[in-house]
Automatic annotation (TrEMBL):
Localization: Cytoplasm
UniProt-recorded name of the protein: Pyrroline-5-carboxylate reductase
Originating organism: Microbacterium lacticum
Family membership noted in the UniProt record: Belongs to the pyrroline-5-carboxylate reductase family.
One GO term describing the cellular component: cytoplasm
Membrane among keywords: no
Coiled coil: none
Residue ranges annotated for the Pyrroline-5-carboxylate reductase dimerisation domain, each copy included: 169-273
C-alpha cells in the first residue's frame, strides 16, 4: 500500500503548484494540503479539491506563515523574484525536520539554504506542465542537509503527478531544457505537422484531428509497449517505402543537430536568468 504523505503546504500555487495540488488530491495520499494564492479568485479554483484547503492572501495576509508553520513539507511556488522575501517570512516558523522544496526556476539551493538556515533540508524540484494530467517529469536535486529519507519523501510527493528523476543540481538546467521546455517542442511539431496537412488540402478541423491524434496515438503506443522509439519507427518504416523517403528528408535536414542546438540555447538562457540577466 502506498504511503500516506504528511502535511503539505504549497505557497504560491500558480499553474505548477495548482497542478501538483491536483495530483496530490487525485492520488488520495495527501489528506492535509494547504495552498495559498494572492487573490480570492485564484484560491477558489483549487478550493474543491479533496483534502486541500485553499487560502487567499487577500483574505488572510499571514496565510503563508501559518501554512508553513503547520507543514512537514513546504513547496515554494512563488515567482523567483519573490522567493527571498517569502523565505525570510517563513524561516522562523519552520519546525525542526520540515522539508523545504523549491519550484522556482533559476534559484539555487545555496540561496534557499542561506535564508532558511543550516540544518533545514532543502530539495530543488523542476516539474513540467503535464503534471496537470498526472504525466509530469520532475527532476529533483538534494541540498546539503537533505537526507535520503527526505529525498524519498519528496519523490513520493511528485510521483503522485508523474515520474521523478534524481539529478545533481548542476544538471537541473539541462534537465529543464529537455523535460521542462520539452512540451513546447512537441506542441510546435504538432503545429507544423497540422500546417503540412492543411497544405495538402485538408480542412482545418481534419488537419488538426489527424496531426494531434497521430502524436497522441504514437505516444500511447510507446507507453503501452515499452519498446525503444527507434524500433517502433523501424516498424512503421518499410524498406523503400513512403515513410522511409519522408524520414530521410527529416534526417537530411539535421534534425538531431537542431534539437541539440535548441536545448543548448535553453541551458544558456537558464544560466543568464540565474545570473540576473
Amino acid at each position: 500500500m502506498a504511503q500516506t504523505l504528511p502535511t503539505i503546504a504549497i505557497l504560491g500555487a500558480g499553474s505548477m503548484g495548482g497542478a501538483i495540488a491536483t495530483g496530490l488530491a487525485r492520488s488520495g495520499r495527501a489528506p492535509r494540503v494547504t495552498v495559498t494564492n494572492r487573490s480570492a479568485a485564484k484560491a477558489e479554483t483549487l478550493a474543491g479539491l479533496e483534502g486541500v484547503t485553499s487560502v487567499a492572501l487577500a483574505d488572510a495576509p499571514d496565510a503563508n506563515l501559518a501554512a508553513a508553520a503547520a507543514a512537514d513539507i513546504v513547496l515554494v511556488g512563488v515567482k523567483p523574484v519573490m522567493v527571498s522575501d517569502l523565505l525570510r517570512e517563513i524561516a522562523p516558523a519552520l519546525r525542526p525536520g520540515t522539508i523545504v522544496v523549491s519550484l522556482a526556476a533559476g534559484v539555487t539551493l545555496a540561496t534557499f539554504e542561506a535564508i532558511v538556515g543550516d540544518g533545514v533540508p532543502v530539495v530543488r524540484a523542476m516539474p513540467n506542465t503535464p503534471a496537470v494530467v498526472g504525466k509530469a517529469v520532475t527532476g529533483v536535486s538534494a541540498g546539503t542537509a537533505a537526507s535520503s529519507d527526505d529525498v524519498a519523501l519528496v519523490r513520493a510527493l511528485f510521483e503522485t503527478c508523474g515520474v521523478v528523476i534524481e539529478v545533481p543540481e548542476a544538471q537541473i538546467d539541462a534537465l529543464s531544457s529537455i523535460s521542462g521546455s520539452g512540451p513546447a517542442y512537441v506542441f510546435l511539431l504538432i503545429e507544423e505537422f497540422t500546417e503540412a496537412a492543411r497544405g495538402k488540402g485538408f480542412s482545418d478541423a481534419d488537419a488538426r484531428l489527424m496531426a494531434e491524434q497521430t502524436f497522441i496515438g504514437a505516444a500511447a503506443l510507446l507507453d503501452a509497449t515499452g519498446e525503444d522509439p527507434a524500433e517502433l519507427r523501424r516498424k512503421v518504416t518499410s524498406p523503400k517505402g513512403t515513410t522511409e523517403r519522408a524520414v530521410a528528408v527529416l534526417q537530411g535536414a539535421n534534425l538531431a543537430g537542431l534539437f541539440s542546438e535548441a536545448t543548448d540555447a535553453a541551458v544558456a538562457r537558464a544560466k543568464e536568468l540565474a545570473a540576473g540577466a
